[in-house]
Amino acid sequence: MTDVTLVIVVVSYFIYLIFDLATTKHYKYNVAQLLVLALFVIFLNIKTGFPFPKVSFGSVSSESTFSLMLLFIIMGMISNHLFFNEKLNLKKCLKPILVSPMILMPLYVSLRQHCVNHPTQF
Q1: How far are the Cα atoms of 76, 77, 82 from residue 86, in angstroms, in the given order?
Q2: Helix boundaries (H) for the chain
Q3: What is the tally of structural domains in the chain?
Q4: Whether the bond into 51 is cis, omega within 30 of 0
Q5: 59 φ, ψ to 5°?
Q6: If you average pLDDT over residues 101-120, what whole number do you get?
Q7: Contacts of 67 (CB under 8 A, 6+ apart)
Q8: pTM to 2 decimals?
Q9: Structural domain of residue 84, as residue ranges?
Q10: 87 lies in some domain
Q11: Is residue 120, in this structure, part of any structural domain at all?
């Protein structure tokens, strides 16, 4: 489930960057972001086998943990945006939401490695 969510987020961010590249004059900035996105996908593929990850063992899967963390980070971003602004502006709020999985990747990779190397013992 998490891998499908992550694929959707990566593709959505790619589409957003292409649209932003076509409508604005921030070429260097958008090309740099596209490069970072490509490096992010390559890193995920090397570390986890993304988009077909290795299966981890344990009582709680790393995918469900990652999904919950991502959900609450996105909810926090939206609530922070609404707190400081009177109304929801999707253009200002969308980019941080699409980038947030990249922030969680080091933790996600360590969770996957821990679950594979140290299954839950009873």
Answers
A1: 16, 15, 6
A2: 2-23, 27-48, 62-84, 90-117
A3: 1
A4: yes
A5: -75, -35
A6: 67
A7: 1, 2, 5
A8: 0.51
A9: 2-115
A10: yes
A11: no
